[in-house]
UniProtKB/TrEMBL annotation:
Any one GO molecular function term: hydrolase activity
Segments forming domain Beta-lactamase class A catalytic: 24-231
Record's protein name: Serine hydrolase
Keywords in alphabetical order: Hydrolase
Length: 261
């Protein structure tokens, strides 16, 4: 019995009572048989979109448009929310590699906007299309609610992005290794990685806005073996639902791991 059957059986026996609306996509990177639930529903990506932005920037590095050491201006008008750059008004530029690290490891929104400005929306759109995304758009900077356009994604698209990264179809091997190292240093570990046994590795990126809690990840040992994306939105009670949603997402991460056999 393969990964998909084991995971589907596990989920059928539990049917987690999520406090919001669930989008779920997972598959074994070798068997490639997906387990899906609400996987194509378009939702706000929150900070999960930062993985796509990182890959887009690293594609620019591969193409010779810039290097990881290039100094990139940090917008004077800093996005609030997660991160530290909005507290550091004296920092007006940073190396692209450092901005990518801040963007992923502590989910810094101002760093993300600096990377978006450097890469450009058209390049991010091309990257999304080339990675097979059908519901993912990045049309405005983070926290910029006054700007036109919208940012959207789906659980299937988020799984596709990480799949392409893990299998070195998004980037060449050296930049793939770099991206995975950055993801492995993610500091928010209260969702998909939270219940994994010692020694199990998880390369993840969370996302969080009002009434939504997300996490997308690769799970494995010395290498990624499975991809999983969990996007939960329409949380009715923001404060009470946060812990419950995170606990349910953590349970799904453990079930994905056990399904690897």
């Amino acid at each position: 019995m393969g990964f998909a059957r084991r995971l589907a059986d596990s989920l059928a026996g539990v049917r987690p009572d999520f406090p919001g609306r669930l989008g779920f996509a997972a598959w074994d990177l070798r068997e490639r048989v997906p387990v899906l639930s609400g996987a194509d529903r378009e939702v706000h990506p929150a900070s999960t979109i930062k993985v796509l932005v990182m890959i887009s920037a690293l594609r620019g590095v591969h193409g010779g448009l810039f290097t990881l050491d290039d100094q990139v201006p940090v917008p004077a008008e800093r996005a609030g929310g997660s991160g530290v750059l909005h507290e550091l008004s004296g920092v007006d530029r940073l190396a692209l590699g450092d901005l990518i690290t801040l963007m992923i490891v502590i989910s810094d929104n101002a760093a993300t906007n600096a990377v978006i400005d450097a890469v450009g929306f058209p390049a991010i759109a091309r990257c999304a299309a080339e990675l097979g995304c059908t519901a993912t758009r990045v049309e405005r900077r983070l926290m910029d609610v006054r700007a036109p356009g919208r940012n959207t994604t789906s659980a299937r698209d988020q799984a596709r992005i990480l799949d392409r990264l893990a299998t070195a179809r998004a980037l060449p091997p050296d930049l793939t290794a770099h991206a995975l190292r950055v993801l492995s240093r993610q500091q928010v570990r209260d969702r998909l990685p939270a219940l994994l046994p010692a020694g199990v590795r998880c390369w993840n990126k969370t996302g969080e806005i009002a009434h939504s809690r997300h996490d997308v990840a690769l799970i494995g040992d010395h290498r990624p073996r499975a991809v999983v994306a969990v996007l939960v939105d329409e949380l009715a009670d923001e404060r009470a639902a946060h812990r419950l949603a995170c606990d349910r997402i953590a349970d799904l991460g453990l079930r994905v791991f056990h399904a690897l056999g």
